[in-house]
């Protein structure tokens, strides 16, 4: 039911505007409002916090269907989940009521502030510092590549509370938009997901109350790792949706395009390409859905979530590239969506842990 509902919403409301969102770099507020009205921004959040009270499987189905037509819009779903996860994992009841509730309703958006100019995959090398000052923490530092920055009202910030302890000195804080000392840099001009806003977030003597600390001081790295275990599956679903959308476009085109007196889908070389693409998409789907199911069952998902993200994003890059090849010259122009999908797919191999890092995570679970 969820899958069909979101598919109808995406195809009827998002698909036609997806090209314009990409070309002009429009933040899709209209789409976001519609997703909020349909309960998608808090689909797997308990009803007591104004969520839909559904499960992770429903969540990844929703992400997949939105990404199938507009990856930029789907980023809002994955990012909202990324911000909600640490709040649900480590937040106090008061913090959940204050921050989770409006986010689950879709009244406000969130941003997750981890990456810095000198710290990407190596979270332990972040320089942003939070110093205790009485009943407050004073935050100074700079974050980059932050999704929804400037548009969000709630920021979960990863900072050092003990700069000499590496990843053992990390803590997480909630910072609200409008807090003095919180400012934003320029909007990045990206290859793909161009409708998703990405900016620097700058903290200059940004003072937040101690009540905004998530969990215990210096215990943030554990929360961070748990968060990423939870949310990589969503990025896998996003990649899966992009791949499925590209496959749909390639199959449709192959049935319409005539060469040498026959449609493309009558040629075995094209049939083989499409068969491989479909097989890769289905294999990725099974991994993503298994990871979501295991999370709902309370199982250890470190390995399976990394596998799902790794597999689905690699498949997305391969399938979108092959879709461009099936469409030939038409695939290379912006009139057809596979060109956009190919650009959108690339980021899924990079954010929330590069695929090189995912392979290291998987290897560690083997040994």
Beta-strand residue percentage:
15-25%
What is the CA-based Rg, rounded? Answer: 21 Å
How many separate helices? 11
Mean pLDDT level:
97
Q: Give the N-terminus to C-terminus distance in angstroms.
A: 41 Å
Fraction of helical residues:
40-55%
- How would you sum up the major sheet? 4 strands, mixed
In total, the number of strands is: 10
Helix-strand topology string: HHHHHHEEEEEEEEHEEHHHH
* Structure classification: alpha+beta
Poorly predicted parts: none
Shape: elongated
Q: Which strands sit side by side, in order, in the main sheet? A: 1-4-5-8
InterPro entries: Acyl-CoA_DH_CS, Acyl-CoA_Oxase/DH_mid-dom, Acyl-CoA_Oxase/DH_mid-dom_sf, AcylCo_DH-like_C, AcylCo_DH/oxidase_C, AcylCoA_DH/ox_N, AcylCoA_DH/ox_N_sf, AcylCoA_DH/oxidase_NM_dom_sf
Protein name: Acyl-CoA dehydrogenase
Domain Acyl-CoA dehydrogenase/oxidase C-terminal: 218-366
Pfam families: Acyl-CoA_dh_1, Acyl-CoA_dh_M, Acyl-CoA_dh_N
Description:
- By secondary structure, the protein is of the alpha+beta class.
- Helix content is 51%, strand content 16%.
- The protein has eleven helices and ten strands.
- The strands form three sheets. Strands 1-4-5-8 form a four-stranded mixed β-sheet, with helices on one face. It has a four-stranded antiparallel β-sheet with strand order 2-3-7-6, with no helix packed on it.
- The longest helix has 37 residues, at 220-256.
- It is elongated, with a radius of gyration of 21 Å.
- The mean pLDDT is 97.
């Amino acid at each position: 039911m969820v899958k069909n509902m979101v598919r109808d919403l995406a195809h009827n409301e998002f698909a036609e505007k997806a090209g314009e969102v990409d070309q002009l770099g429009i933040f899709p507020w209209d789409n976001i409002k519609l997703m909020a009205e349909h309960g998608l921004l808090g689909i797997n959040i308990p009803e007591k916090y104004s969520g839909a009270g559904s499960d992770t499987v429903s969540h990844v189905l929703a992400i997949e269907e939105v990404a199938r037509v507009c990856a930029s819009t789907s980023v809002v779903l994955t990012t909202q989940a990324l911000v909600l996860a640490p709040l649900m994992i480590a937040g106090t009841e008061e913090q959940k009521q204050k921050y989770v509730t409006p986010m689950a309703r879709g009244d406000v958006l969130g941003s997750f502030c981890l990456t810095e100019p000198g710290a990407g995959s190596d979270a332990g090398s972040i320089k942003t510092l939070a110093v205790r000052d009485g009943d407050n923490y004073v935050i100074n530092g700079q974050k980059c590549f932050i999704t929804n920055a400037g548009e969000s009202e709630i920021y979960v910030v990863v900072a050092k509370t003990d700069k000499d302890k590496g990843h053992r000195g990390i803590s997480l804080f909630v910072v609200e938009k409008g807090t003095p000392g919180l400012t934003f840099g320029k909007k990045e001009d990206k290859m793909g997901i161009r409708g998703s806003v990405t900016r620097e977030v700058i903290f200059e003597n940004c003072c937040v109350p101690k009540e905004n600390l998530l969990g215990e001081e210096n215990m943030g790295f554990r929360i961070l790792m748990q968060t990423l275990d939870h949310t990589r599956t969503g990025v896998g679903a996003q990649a899966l949706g992009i791949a499925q959308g590209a496959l749909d476009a390639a199959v449709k085109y192959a049935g319409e395009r005539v060469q040498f007196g026959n449609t493309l889908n009558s040629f075995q070389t094209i049939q083989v390409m499409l068969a491989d693409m479909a097989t890769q998409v289905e294999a990725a789907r099974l991994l993503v859905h298994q990871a979501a199911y295991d999370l709902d069952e309370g199982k250890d998902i470190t390995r399976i979530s990394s596998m799902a993200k790794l597999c689905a994003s690699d498949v997305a890059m391969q399938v979108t590239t092959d879709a461009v090849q099936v469409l030939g010259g038409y695939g290379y122009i912006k009139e057809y969506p596979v060109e956009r999908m190919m650009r959108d797919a690339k980021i899924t191999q990079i954010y929330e842990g590069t695929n090189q890092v995912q392979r290291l995570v998987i290897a560690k679970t083997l040994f």
